[in-house]
Amino acid sequence: MARMTSSTRPFLNRRLAEFGTTIFAEMSALALRTGSINLGQGFPDTDGPEEVREAAVRALRDGRGNQYPPGPGVPELRTAIAAHQQRWYGLSYDPDAEVLVTAGATEAIAASLLALLEPGDEVIALEPYYDSYAACIAMAGGTRVPVTLRPHEGSFRLDLDELRAAVTDRTRLLLLNTPHNPTGAVLTRAELAAVAELAVERDLLVVTDEVYEHLVFDDAEHLPLAGFPGMRDRTVTIGSAGKTFSFTGWKVGWVTASPPLVAAVRSAKQFLTYVSSGPFQYAVAEALALPDAYFTAFREDMLAKRDLLAAGLKDAGFDVFRTAGTYFVTTDIRPLGESDGFAFCRALPERAGVVAIPNAVFYDHREAGAPFVRFAFCKRAEVLAEAVQRLKTLA
N or C: which end of the chain has fewer CB within 10 A? Predict the structure, then answer.
């Protein structure tokens, strides 16, 4: 007989009660049920480089990583991450004291916020924000303070005055994402310099999610905030192999920061997964050393897919915002006579056989994101072409 309790207290911790099932699970299930093309969840439909996959197989067969790897990550990968930061950005990190391997960027975010926040600390996050940000802030007992990226001349931009006004005596940390999911915005050098000045002036920590660092397009450039004056010792930079090498299921991410910050994040991380992805860590170490030609070809392939989908969405009647980075396109559904992104996305599989994500799920201010819908273009070109044909029925 089940043990009964007279308590009326809910089972779920109240800090998480507002979140429920993620929109990605809902929309992916809808795609399966209706046989729709899933342009909602951001994962590629092809694997990354064959030589990287073979490196993982070789590690498995050689018995490297099949048992618990070192808590901070295998030395080969930590060395490769440090070399990557030096190669691309001229940033020098000690592989032993300033690099931490995590179970994807999601764990890096969780461990960073759990380590660096006390209950009641305020965290400023750029809105719309990836949904795990809000949940991790809540689990840490922090208070999220959204600063909204708003449409301006065909793309989304940060209002620096609004950012400054959001900082209070209770602000502990800025949580940034650039290139930005879901809007595709990439913070400019001037914007990042202003963020750095503000962080130094108000003595703030900054956690930067830079997982789309190698997916910047046109005239945009990715500049790590840690490279700006005064930021080296107050910035936790988060990277990931999943987005750059199209092995999202491997869940290999990392943190680079000063020794005290890495030590703090490691203290939280060790009680989450402790370690993960042993053999894959060796493979990612080899991936990070791939020649420039790989990164160029990867970016050019995604750029072509961006243009294919963006043009198709425009032809279908959407307003399409410029994507300067990531592999997402944000659209405005109001030209189609719609204004509720949730209702639109839930009906879209039946109307057009395509699944997308309503951006409003990434907002505290739901009304600000209500008419915006996100599509992913990290799919095979023929899949995107078929999706475009289906979406034209909306026009």
Answer: N
